[in-house]
Amino acid sequence: GLGLHSEFSEPLLMPLFILRGLFGWDIFPDGFLLDPHFPKAVRDFRLDRIRFQGALFALDYRNGAVTVELQ
Known about the structure:
Elements: H1 13-22, E1 26-28, E2 31-33, E3 44-52, E4 55-62, E5 65-70
Antiparallel strand pairs: 1-2, 3-4, 4-5
């Protein structure tokens, strides 16, 4: 993908931005917290195959709410 000034040199920057920036992902030793910050123009967005503490799940953003789905 293209960054603002050049190509992303690190392949994890975009997924990290999506998790931390858009979904508001914050991790703790016993779990995680989501506080979404999507632009109003984004009505739905899905991120699959996220691994956290041995679990595999997806995050689904629709109409201002996030659903966590175990896979």
